[in-house]
Amino acid sequence: xxxxxxxxxxxxxxxxxxxxxxxxxxxxxxxxxxxxxxxxxxxxxxxxxxxxxxxxxxxxxxxxxxxxxxxxxxxxxxxxxxxxxxxxxxxxxxxxxxxxxxxxxxxxxxxxxxxxxxxxxxxxxxxxxxxxxxxxxxxxxxxxxxxxxxxxxxxxxxxxxxxxxxxxxxxxxxxxxxxxxxxxxxxxxxxxxxxxxxxxxxxxxxxxxxxxxxxxxxxxxxxxxxxxxxxxxxxxxxxxxxxxxxxxxxxxxxxxxxxxxxxxxxxxxxxxxxxxxxxxxxxxxxxxxxxxxxxxxxxxxxxxxxxxxxxxxxxxxxxxxxxx
Length: 324
Hints:
D-amino Acid Aminotransferase, Chain A, domain 1; alpha+beta; Dna Ligase, domain 1; 3 domains; 5-stranded antiparallel β-sheet; 8-stranded mixed β-sheet; Rossmann fold; globular; about 30% helix
């Protein structure tokens, strides 16, 4: 694809100091931007300001390099008008998907007419990972969203083993496996109810998780690649952030069917970079749109360049805007 002129890109993400460049997808995308000559800025979500109809960000120009411990160099802070001064905003801070996150989507939505925001902030707000997936319940394991202990007990009795997890959690945090005995189930539900005001998710336990939880990345609706994440000993959580290991993989026929069903809708919504999770080659559990990861492992196993694919898709979106 013919590259557009070098772009000015503002990246809304977590602090640069704390990222692990060996596996951080946002850093991978920033390196790909550098290769294309794009100018990068970094800012945090709290650095956003709305003033007199404009959305501003106190941002710092940043140079990135693949050198552990010396992976970025900041310039002096500047106040950017995100609608006038930049071509692309990457919304890449990690959850929690809380009111702060939602507020950032509302502010960034106000610059969409002038600047491409990836992923589309309104679409992100309307598609939290564990709720958007309910649109594709036909691919999911038996699932319940509730705060009611009696409902959870009934669900456990029906399915034998269950997994309980927060509705807006991330990186495998607070994911619990409850066996047939239901030991500590009441205490666990009490803990969830006291820790979060929203309902929580309960799913039938899929034994196939022991063989891995596949992360499949889609770029503008098309499959870019996949990596199998295998839980550590004694774990059901396969997230790399909690000790899971990565393995090369291919898509099953069922996974291809799932991706074909999701792809057009992701593209229509402006969800350009998405990671879906599939267990046992057939059970869809999440659609990650806030800050999906996994592309470093995928590229290492497959010899691909997902960062370049993302920038090609961004270029295509920008070209379509100009043509319109």
